[in-house]
Design brief:
about 30% strand, single chain, four-stranded antiparallel β-sheet, about 300 residues, alpha+beta
Length: about 300
Amino acid sequence: YVNHSQVLRENILTAVQNLPQLLETGMGELASGLQAQPPRQVDLAALGDRIPFTYPVMEVTAEQSGTLYLRGQDYDLYDGLGWHASENRTELFPSAAGQAETIRIRTNSKKGIRYLPYHPALPTDLVNGSAKNPRQEQDYTLLRNGLPENWRQTAYEHNTASPAEWQSYLSLPDQTRQGATEFLEQLQTTDISNTAKADIIAALVTDSARYDTRPGKMPTGESDFALWFLREGDAGYCVHFATAATVLLRAAGVPARYVTGYMLEAEAGKPVTVTEENAHAWAEYYEPNLGIWLPL
């Protein structure tokens, strides 16, 4: 028997204390963790402070200790005020060539998707940006391959063109692309690999603002969330940084997507309880020298 009454009480109090914001934003953050399917869009214009809900969502057991990203949903369309997951997309999420390990995931509720670690041992079908779970299984085991030890050296070796199939992940509104170029002057004449560009962009975005779960909303009248955050925003959390990084990657010619899921610290052989506080957003980019997508 596990007593969850304290967790329930804390979440009720959190919801009551943040009721004005929940009503204003449509309770999107709370609902997204409870829905069987991830939301098809992320409304950046309504984004406010991050509310620290602690209800458990899954239990994860890995063979190795370390940081683990569990990929839920990717979003490919950016319109300046939000991310959208377009329909009619079917593709293979490629595997890596590193050491294999088994990961067991047990979700607390039925989900229409499977959470994918980086990287599944076998190429996995993505439909509209996520791995489907048609039977809504709550207990499943996945085999993942880590990256080889020399992956960064291989990624840096030369600038290889990305395959044509990923060119749609370079699209941006004209206004966004023009505004983003002002932050990429050091990359304009440099013939470097996607990973080298990603490292530069990661440092740029990290230095652009401080991490804060209560940064406030984007001012009314702004038409582009990423440009506002890079130019004027002085604080933000994962959604802010991931949006800015994805936009800059695309502007630099690197296929990239905005991804939501969970991030946790795995302990070898021990079940780890993942709560909604582990919910995370990040940029994901394609590295043609390795033939895989990498989380940034």
